[in-house]
Model the fold of this input.
Amino acid sequence: MTTTHVYFDGGTKDGTTLVSGTPIDGNIYQPEGFFDREEFYEQTDEMRVVDGVQHTVFRYAGQQP
Done:
C-alpha cells in the first residue's frame, strides 16, 4: 500500500501534513525542502484524521549526523 497522506509528529514539522509521501529505507521519511538541517521521521502504526482524510503518522526520529 502506498502512503499518500502523511502527518508529522514532532521536530520542526510538528503538525504539518503532506500529500504523497515517499518513504526511504522502508519506514523512514526525510521531507524535502529542509535546508537548515536534515530531519528524519519514522512511520508509526497510528493514523490521524485531518479534514476528513486519514493520514499516516510519522514521528520525529532525530537529525542526520
User: Anything to note?
Assistant: The two ends are 30 Å apart (CA to CA). The mean pLDDT is 77. The longest strand covers residues 39-50.
